[in-house]
Amino acid sequence: MKLFYRKYGNGPPLIILHGLYGSSDNWVTIAKSLGDLFTIYLPDQRNHGQSPHDNIHDYDSMRNDLFELAYDLKLNKFFLAGHSMGGKTAIAFALKWPEMINGLLIADISPFTNETTKYSAYNQHLTILKAMISIDLSRISIRKEAESILLEMIPSEKVRGFILKNLQRTTGNNFTWKINGSSLLNNLDKIMEGIDRSADVIQQITGFPVIFLKGENSDYLPSCDFKDILIVFPAAEFIKVANAGHWIHSDRPDEVVKNLKKLLGDR
User: Fold this and answer.
1) What is the CATH number of the domain that holds 204?
2) Is residue 267 part of a domain?
3) What would the pLDDT profile of 29-56 be if each residue is shown by its tens digit?
């Protein structure tokens, strides 16, 4: 799949992958602040932003989309970062093509399915996607009306605001969603999947720096997973970001920028 992307800066290539419900827009400020160190590519993943919609939405397909983008950009080796769903996509890519990675940063997501938080996270996303799909956009004339409907099912103002960033006006002055809610809902089980922890499946990936950022107020990257992550990425560094929830790049962009710079090492 040909992904839409934005490009900023000059220097060694860095691709940053957004998370579920996100888009390349979410990372523009961070990309611009790193433009003197990296050439940064911000793709919209499938079923998000300006990239094509498709019935298939899993980590194999997103990993392959990323490979196609790198091939089209003639990137034989690059730095890679990803948040949440984008982090899992980045990990899937690194497991398949580690020779193409110069450095890896994963923002607030575990590679593994965590049984403790799996059902609460699944139900939260289920509620969000059903709420989006339930809105009859043909009856919406202003954005505030959509927000009022979402308020009944999504109490968090921050989450509602994040979701509403995907609501856009068409040329006919109607509203439409930039994300493919139906496909995401149908593939929610696959989006929640992670690496199999069984010893015969896990492989070791070395040869480049790996940083995992954990939001202090988030449970998407539980500390109990660190030991298993070190089996896959023996050189992984874990950094807890104070005063940050799951959306670290929104809560503490300074910390994200600082740690992306660390990937360069002594370059």
Assistant:
1) 3.40.50.1820
2) no
3) 999 999 999 999 999 999 999 999 999 9
